[in-house]
Amino acid sequence: xxxxxxQTDRITGTNGRFGTYTWEEVQKHTKSGDQWIVVERKxxxxxxWVKRHPGGLRIIGHYAGEDATEAFTAFHPDLQLVRKYMKxxxxxxxxxxxxxxxxxxxxxxxxxxxxxxxxxxAEGCFKNQPLFFLLHLxxxxxxxxxxxxxxxxxxxxxxxIGNLFWAVSASDVFVFVRVCPQGASAGWWNHRHFQHHAxxxxxxxxxxxxxxNAFVVGKVQPVEYGVKKIKHLPYNHQHKYFFFxxxxxxxxxxxxxxxxxNMILHGLWVDLAWCISYYVRYFLCYTQFYGVFWAVILFxxxxxxxxxxxxxxxxxxxxxxNIDYEKHQDWLSMQLVATCNIEQSPFNDWFSGHLNFxxxxxxxxxxxxxxxxxxxxxxxxxxDKYGVKYQExxxxxxxxxxxxxxxxxxxxxxxxxxxx
Length: 420
Prior knowledge:
By secondary structure, the protein is mainly alpha-helical. The chain has helices at 23-26, 57-61, 69-75, 79-86, 107-122, 130-152, 156-177, 186-198, 220-227, 238-265, 269-315, 331-338, 346-352, 358-363, 372-386, 395-419, and strands at residues 19-21, 30-31, 34-39, 42-45, 90-94, 341-342, 392-393. Among the domains are: 19-99, Cytochrome b5-like heme/steroid binding domain (Flavocytochrome B2, Chain A, domain 1, Roll); 130-197 and 239-315, no CATH class.
């Protein structure tokens, strides 16, 4: 501990002392059960709090020993409220001689990004427009109504068309409210997705780059696997078997198993009840039209279609980008090397649910998606100022880059496997 280790009646840490610390001291506390973070130059001991953190214990652990100010600001809409809960965890602050940023981050870039966020807040970019969501909900309900009307009409062709409309509307519900109402756990999804936003494309911290040994991604992992002679699958052909493993199986198989395993393992009984209620409502509705067998077929077909949409739309902005171990970059640089945008158009906006603005989505995860286009020019200007690459692609080019990047990673693996 640095100087100033006197008792304080206002705030106490776990050892009852309030002091000043250097970055070197803070960075010693990164292990499970002993984790400190820095927010706005204040040092917090979150060792025990991580277990009760609403966003999950891992997301705080990913910032142990680091400056978490940008992540703290990005994820908490009501900062004043959260600061009140953090007071008992405060054990001190950085010494006056210490920089506000750790790991040699560009202080000017960090300050300019914070100023940009404040500007966007003042412009109202973080405020919802109820009309946008009402119109979106209206078109979902319209598709649902058309589907039910066509199903009730009972002719074979209209029933088939009804199935198609139902599949489309179900996919739109998925985009609109994420996965919660369709038999998934909101707690599981938030815990997983928060980690992805906190440390995108960072091995051991972003669950989305955990490929379960089915794929090797980026430039680092393929060489590591090759050198270690790891060959769970012929990775030099992964760009081919991706079509049979990734898009069709992620939601119907992997997510489905993981969702229920997570809810039971962590005792998320409320989530489990909601998930079960979804299946009950689904089968009560559709078995009367098709019977049990065809209702199951329809259910899995919709999941199959959802899975294709989900994989292509989410991974077009991430798999082709930089994937590596922790580099302790500032928030802006970390997000920009891990993601890219897709050109704006009415179709791209609708098809992706505005996730074509993936950069803005990552920089400002609490910003309503209908405002991303307003933030984009400001973010691009800031990137230009500091030489941070702001990448934008066509939709087709982004899809093709998924396959090209998998092929390149597979070649790196094969070269390392055969020659090292």
